[in-house]
């Protein structure tokens, strides 16, 4: 272990109690996406305590502070997500809004703040060629359509945090991103290094338009929109055999409005759906088939399907463990680590996927928790593995990327082929929505 690594580990250990208190405080005051004002203020306060000057209010609530290294070089963003998930049954749910950190984002923020404390410690930043942007970002969890529409009226065009930050320039100047999360797929090791593939999704609202009539005396005069929706659901179910296993397609639906009065033929039925798949191509294919099934099932019964498509998240592009992650994990011999492998697939989705289409993402996940994500039984069971180790991993990984003229960061950037430029990303999202 070199002297800078020792300083990083000592700095995090020296701030252990501060970090645990921060994790606990954020965990007890979870806030929904784009409304994380208290959380953002606490992050900004700790970043100021590191001698940094955070920008605030990025994409509403984002906080970013840049630490300059001793020499010029690339900019690595250390990301932490600010939001909780609506989970009123969780014992730590915020009584004001029912939101809880049942996805462990308070652990990410603790890692971010811990990395800022460590990398700004005397003798550490000087060893970096480049800069580190500590970036607390809003709204990773899915923002419901109604909230999205209200936010759009207030100028939030893209309704997930990283996407809106890409649109508004928050990531301009950032060359690569460091992300972490509690384990998102089953993993026995304390650390899982690299990017496991994650499904992307697109969100749909289908309004089936029929014609009202007396349900008993004159059904022949009506067009039953609920029957159209049921036929569409059956058609979507029958499409299942056309989806390849490797594309991990999932289509889940609900009926938000199923008709007005029982003795009236349903005139308007509103169905919501999420279509998920492992690649942009598979997502496109599944979404087109879904649209086709709804359109023609409705036509078959004389109804009409109006399909509204909303922005979802893009798939995470898988990536093997970056050498900087391997070097960081080697400095933490008390923790077990394994690497992401081809074929590992997370069926859920995250807007880290959007980022991974535009810039290199260096990611690890960690343990220290029990219970299922997004559920009332999710809990941190080991504060060192959930809060302290990720802080050390983040700081050490940033150091290994940016030390020695940032050779590993540059190699990571050179080996990355973006699917989109920032401009073409914005155009693509606008076309979807
Ligand atoms: Zn989540
Ligand atoms: Zn999460």
From TrEMBL:
Transmembrane segments: none annotated. Residues 200-298 form the Peptidase M20 dimerisation domain. The keyword Magnesium does not apply. GO terms for molecular function: dipeptidase activity; para-aminobenzoyl-glutamate hydrolase activity. GO terms for cellular component: cytoplasm. InterPro entries: Amidohydrolase, Bact_exopeptidase_dim_dom, Peptidase_M20, Peptidase_M20/M20A_hydrolases, Peptidase_M20_dimer. GO terms for biological process: folic acid catabolic process. The keyword Hydrolase applies. Keywords: Hydrolase. Pfam families: M20_dimer, Peptidase_M20. PANTHER family: PEPTIDASE M20 (PTHR30575), PEPTIDASE M20 DIMERISATION DOMAIN-CONTAINING PROTEIN (PTHR30575:SF3). This is Amidohydrolase.
């Amino acid at each position: 272990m070199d002297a800078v690594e020792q300083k990083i580990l000592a700095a995090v250990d020296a701030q252990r109690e501060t970090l645990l208190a921060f994790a606990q405080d954020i965990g007890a005051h979870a806030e929904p996406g784009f409304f994380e004002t208290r959380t953002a203020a606490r992050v900004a306060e700790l970043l100021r305590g590191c001698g940094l000057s955070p920008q605030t209010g990025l994409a509403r609530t984002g906080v970013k502070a840049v630490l300059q290294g001793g020499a010029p070089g690339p900019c690595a963003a250390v990301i932490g997500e600010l939001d909780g998930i609506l989970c009123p049954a969780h014992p730590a749910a915020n009584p004001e809004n029912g939101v809880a950190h049942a996805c462990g984002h308070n652990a990410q923020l603790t890692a971010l703040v811990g990395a800022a404390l460590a990398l700004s410690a005397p003798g550490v930043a000087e060893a970096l060629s480049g800069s580190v942007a500590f970036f607390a970002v809003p709204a990773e969890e899915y923002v419901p359509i109604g909230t999205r529409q209200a936010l759009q009226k207030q100028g939030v065009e893209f309704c997930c945090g990283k996407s809106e930050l890409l649109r508004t320039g928050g990531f301009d100047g950032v060359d690569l991103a460091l992300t972490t999360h509690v384990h998102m797929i089953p993993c026995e090791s304390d650390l899982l290094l690299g990017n496991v593939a994650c499904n992307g999704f697109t969100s749909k609202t289908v309004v089936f338009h029929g014609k009202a009539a007396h349900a008993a005396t004159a059904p022949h005069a009506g067009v039953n929109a609920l029957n159209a929706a049921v036929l569409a659901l059956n058609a979507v179910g029958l499409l299942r055999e056309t989806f390849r296993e490797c594309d991990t397609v999932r289509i889940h639906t609900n009926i938000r409005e199923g008709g007005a009065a029982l003795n009236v033929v349903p005139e308007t039925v509103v169905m919501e759906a999420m279509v998920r798949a492992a690649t942009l191509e598979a997502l496109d294919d599944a979404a087109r088939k879904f649209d086709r099934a709804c359109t023609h099932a409705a036509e078959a019964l004389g109804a009409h399907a109006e399909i509204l498509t909303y922005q979802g998240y893009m798939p995470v592009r898988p990536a093997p463990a970056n050498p900087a992650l391997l070097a960081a994990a080697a400095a933490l011999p008390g923790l077990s680590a394994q690497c992401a492998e081809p074929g590992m697939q997370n069926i859920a989705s995250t807007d880290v996927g959007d980022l991974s289409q535009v810039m290199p993402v260096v990611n690890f996940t960690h343990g220290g928790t029990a219970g299922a994500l997004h559920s009332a039984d999710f809990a941190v069971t080991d504060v060192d593995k959930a809060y302290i180790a990720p802080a050390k991993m983040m700081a050490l990984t940033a150091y290994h990327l940016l030390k020695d003229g940032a050779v590993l960061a540059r190699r990571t950037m050179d080996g990355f082929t973006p699917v989109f430029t920032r401009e073409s990303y914005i155009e693509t999202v606008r076309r979807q929505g």
